[in-house]
Amino acid sequence: MLLPKIITKVQDKFPSVTLDTTQFAGEDIIHIQGSYNLDVLKLFRDNGFNFLADITAIDNLTLGGFERFAVVYHLLSHETAERVTIKAYVPEDQPELPSAESLWKTADWQEREIYDLFGISFKGHPNLIRIMNPDDFQGHPLRKDYPRLGRKERDDFPVVKRGINKEAAQ
Amino acid sequence: MQPDDIKSNILTTTLESAVNWGRKHSLWPMPFGTACCGIEFMAVLAARTDIARFGAEAIRFSPRQSDLLIVAGRISIKMMPVLIRIYEQMPEPKWVIAMGACASTGGVFDTYSVIQGVDKFIPVDVYVPGCPPRPEGVVEGLIKLQKLVETEKFSDYSTTRGK
Prior knowledge:
A: alpha/beta, Beta Polymerase, domain 2, 7 strands, B: 163 residues, alpha/beta, Rossmann fold
């Protein structure tokens, strides 16, 4: 069991950074301040949690939480098959935190996806551009204040007609 | 040449109906498969329904060599400029089949990123309902389109595009 040792280590080393530790479905969740995510992630990586399984984000607009956004890191230890979730909280007025690309190369595209859909930018990312939406797209559609039916972008194309004119012939 | 030979070898018709007859039996499809309808369209081409029976077996993956665009699947806002470009690259005469609920209306994907029916931006001649449509449905759509091709008139073609 790697996890209990590391969690106490994190709490000892970064007491003000760790906001809370909770459990869900038998797995530990560590809530931290977003700007210190790299220090905490590096500690986990160097202590056995070698694999970054996923990065995702949450918009806490209606849920409540420490901050508006949370970037969620799912780590896995190949050695002991333990899993841990790290939630890094990011404020609404400055949605920015350090990129984990220097620790795991796989973070590259996942951080681009979060940037595209949530508008959270990652400092030190090598190529932070949209990954799914068109390059000229405005807004970040997975934010809870983005309208589900969009802002008319799906209606904004030129209408093409055929070179045949049936109405005129009749 | 015997008089009987002339009777059985000469057919009088109009140029228009002769050309339309040729066109309707050689619709070369350009499949624009973006989702599960694209998989179903492969079944339309396969042995059981076999659209070669209607002269539409020559699948062209170049818009410049085809006269029937089959939009099979949902079209996202990122894909719509591509579809418009491909439609414009097809030479006249050209027709469009919207295959399935997504291409016709957007289907269940009523979101910011999915076009609510390609007929909003390009002209569609035949809609085939279903999610995805059965191969028989696509064949029915093709027969419907053949009937439409049959009735087109040369005089309908205007010299200026889009007028």
